Please model this.
Amino acid sequence: MRNTDRAGVVWCVLAQTILGSSVPLMRGVVHYPAMTGQAARYAAAAVLLTALARAGFGGPPPRHGWPVRRDVLMLVANAATGLVAFNLCMLTAVRHADPAVVGTIVGATPLVLAVLGPLLRGQRPTARLVAASVVIVVGTVLVHGFGHADALGTAAAVGTLICEAAFSVFAAAALPRLGALRVSAYSCALAVPMLVIGALMAREAPRLPTVTEAATLGYLAVMLTVVAFMAWFTGLHRLGIARAGLFVGVLPVATIVTTSIQDGRFPVPAQALGVLLVGAALTLGLRGRTTGSSSTVEDVAMARREAGPRTGSLAP
Model:
């Protein structure tokens, strides 16, 4: 792999490791009003990300200053699906299905992105990436195991899968012009009013969080949102949707390792086999001629053509 590909791998692994290791910590906010807590989390993250952008950490701002119309559409769609709808679907899923069922269904994300990524560029999916994604799905099933779910729980888990894939697809469309930091900041900021409206419609009763809940929400805002979002979007931009999607398979591995450490128990043999399968599949998917960088160059070129010469207008 070229240096840019190695960097993309590191960013994707970091993002999914943070996400996977954060899943057990969600138990700390299970009794806090869901949409209220998520709104607070994304609001705090948006403030931190904006401060980082103003300090110059996200690189120079776009030539036109603000997102163009196409960017706004992609960012709104990203916030609505990848942040708001994802949380609502996940909340419904865990109430009507065992976590194993939810984890197994969402674990099919690499396969969805391996097929969807090339199709969005008018290309045929790569057999090697599809094969690697299938192996990752099998490994995820072994890591999570099986469980029980009613019809609503299964539907919500499938919705979570769709939202997880949409999170990467919509973000990828805005990354060439805005960069990982600004896409993260705008997405978080746009999700806040959506969640506030949802909380009002659901008649959630806001309350001050306990010390544990406040600490958990703070961690989720800083690590799971600011750091993990920036890492994932950076890796996504470098590797492309299909290849970056493989690393969603790291999520269940990080989850089971973290849970085992916290609960003081070792994974069962089937889970260990699932971890090995995920590792083998990642190796398979990353071998051979790389295509992620070329697709990124194509995306940048397309973005520049669409942007054209600017004089401060917000219209494309």
Observations:
- DSSP finds twelve helices and no strands in the chain.
- Residues 290-316 have pLDDT under 50 and may be disordered.
- The radius of gyration is 19 Å.
